[in-house]
Amino acid sequence: MDESLVIRGVIVPLLTPLTGRGKKIDEDSLRALVERLVGRDVHGVMPCGTTGEGPLLSIAERKRVVEVVTAAVDGRVPVMAHVGTPVTDETIDLARHARTCGAEAVSVVTPYFYHLSENALIEHFCRVADAVVDTPLFLYNIPQCAGNALSRPIVEAIIEQCANVIGIKDSSGDLDSLSSFIGLREGTFQVICGSDGLLLQALQAGALASVSGNANVFPEVVVELLRAFWKGDHDGARRQQELLDQVRESLHDGRSISLLKRILESRGLEGGPVRPPLPEATPEMITVAQDRLRLLGLL
């Protein structure tokens, strides 16, 4: 395991371009998206996450997406492959495959649908971590979607047993939840903000990185926020957060993956349809978003 790995900056949870009513992965468009984002100075990418419709892809499709992305990135930025599923053995399979492909790290969401006890969650994550002991692993907390939450005591129990669990992506939307993980493992535990609306506050609290779905379309907005913060330009960082909030409002704060894809196409890259049962954005939604983004000077 690369014990020196630090995930810092803007990590983009990649959209997955699809074709033909969402029936097939558009590999060429996925490569083009990776190239655009790396060229816009993002600091890493995450294939097969929530924004990438990961839960709607088959295991074989998820493996192929990771293969395409790691090859396209070619070592220029870290790849954190999202490998979480509701099934422990499937998660282990995806984690092993991601590492074989050259992903620098994996992220694992809490198993979803069934409500699990604290002991069951700890056992799940520890089994995955033990199966890929040479792979840095990030927990992924998004209880509003998964139905199972990661509390500080659960995370403490996991990292006490699993040295390769080095951080957490918190997408709860709750600053108190995110902040509770900062300082673990004598301050070396890496906390990543998955909620764009809290990004500046999370950085101020000690988070190291952002996983931003909006950065698929407007990477420069989020990258510049991080740059300003790192330089100590507090006014600049605040202005970028305000701009990011306007982007969030225009794009329904990531609640419509289809809208993200349509606006991505407004910037010259193909996104294709979303996979059913996700709904397609209506023409009115697209027009309103485009008009707002033009007023912001972003289109």
Describe this structure in words.
By secondary structure, this protein is of the alpha/beta class. The protein has one domain (9-231): Aldolase class I (TIM Barrel, Alpha-Beta Barrel). Helix content is 45%, strand content 13%. The protein contains twelve helices and ten strands. It has helices at 27-39, 59-73, 88-101, 118-131, 143-146, 152-161, 175-180, 199-205, 219-231, 234-250, 257-266, 283-295; strands spanning 9-13, 18-19, 24-25, 44-46, 80-82, 105-109, 137-141, 165-170, 190-193, 209-211. The strands form two sheets. It has an eight-stranded parallel sheet with strand order 4-1-10-9-8-7-6-5. Helix 7 (175-180) links the parallel strand 8 and strand 9 (190-193). Helix 3 runs parallel beside helix 4. The longest helix has 17 residues, at 234-250. It starts with 8 loop residues before the first strand and ends with a helix. The mean pLDDT is 97.
